[in-house]
Amino acid sequence: MDTELVELLLIEDNPHEAELTIRNLRKNNLANHMKHIDDGAEALDFIFGQGKYASEKDWNFNPKLILLDLKLPKIGGIEILKQVKADPRTRNIPIVILTSSNELPDIDRCYELGANSYIVKPVNFNDFSRVIGELGMYWVITNQQPNPVSDL
């Protein structure tokens, strides 16, 4: 999938949780332009048009939403959040932390770095389904984003 078509980027290494998230996004017709990446290093390559994605990045188009887990292989979610929010080309992309960690230091650090929301994954399937549907609808459909940075 070309980067220019991605509206929602799911960065999640747990295959079961990724599948549940994708299934619930599909149920709400929000997965048509979605990409799932399961490690932090590849996620950064995708976001910044590096590595195998070097020829695909169109800086006039960024995802409408990044759903980001914190515990990822290679590069953790906090580092991804830090890099995305520090770069003027990507800092306006909404990032929702979707994690199992309810540790106050993680929550505080993510908001300090610019996370737009922090959601602890509900354990109950029905609650998880409801949360994914609601957050997808809000961030992909309802939320208005600024124009992308085109002169960098």
Count of runs of 4 or more consecutive helical residues: 5
Please name the fourth-level CATH homologous superfamily: Response regulator
- Gross CATH architecture: 3-Layer(aba) Sandwich
Number of strands: 5
Q: Termini distance?
A: 24 Å
Biggest beta-sheet profile: 5 strands, parallel
- The CATH class, by name, is Alpha Beta
- Low confidence ranges: none
Kindly describe this structure.
Helix content is about 40%, strand content about 15%. It has one domain (about 5-140): Rossmann fold (3-Layer(aba) Sandwich). The longest helix has 18 residues, at about 125-140. Helix 1 crosses helix 5 and helix 2 (about 40-50) runs parallel beside helix 3. The model has no long low-confidence stretch (mean pLDDT about 85). The protein has five helices and five strands. A five-stranded parallel beta sheet has the order 2-1-3-4-5, sandwiched between helices. It has helices spanning about 15-25, 40-50, 75-85, 105-110, 125-140, and strands at about 10, 35, 65-70, 95-100, 115-120. The protein is of the alpha/beta class and about 150 residues long. The radius of gyration is 14 Å and the shape is globular.
